[in-house]
Amino acid sequence: MNDFPEFDDLPDDPEVAFVRLYERANKEYQEQTYDVQDTRAAAVEFMNTMLGVAQGLEISGFEEWTIPDDWDDIYPAFTSFDRALKRYIMEVKVRKSRVTKVYSVQLSPEDKERIHSLIREIREILTSADLQDRKRNSLFNKLNAFEADVDRVRTRFDNATLMAIDIIGVVDKGTNALKPINELLRRIQAIMGNAKESEPEQNQLPPPAERKKLPPPPKRIEGPSNGGFSRDLDDDIPF
Length: 239
Known about the structure:
Structural class: mainly alpha
Strand content: under 5%
Radius of gyration: 25 Å
Mean pLDDT: 82
Distance between the termini: 28 Å
Shape: elongated
Oligomer: single chain
């Protein structure tokens, strides 16, 4: 059991998870600072949160950023941090979108309808098959999820593969009545494969040599040791 259920829905990809947590933290920051004159406390909380998120997801580059001692230095430090963070978030979104395009396909309306028809046939076979209700419902849920993906602008190959693997596992252990599903799945894969082949060459993106890092601060801000913003806060900052 997860002790922190608020993070149950995080994507497996660390960078995508970082973007999701950034969006959550940024929304909270905007709500906290709406119509507020002095936003430094909220800025410190936001920076501290994102630095902790970066360390938790093992994303490098953030260790160069610190929260200054001097309360008067919060605004320039936060402005630089927020600008660099927004650029990093945009880089991640653009890069992940390009990769997704390589491993997905845009189906025509006719292809989508053909796939929906094949899925209906699969569902009919599963409905009449001798399966436990729990297993049947689980397969129906996977089919429903894949159908929703088919109706998107681009359909991901990994989602189609995961759906097929689950169903093939049941077919291989079942009776001959389930065997026709293999041909129906093969036809779905052929439709997606032919659609992908007809797309312009995507120049198959190679994996990045290294994970992108947050741009470093323009300079290290050193605050006086007796500033109004206590250095004791750093004990809670994981960097």
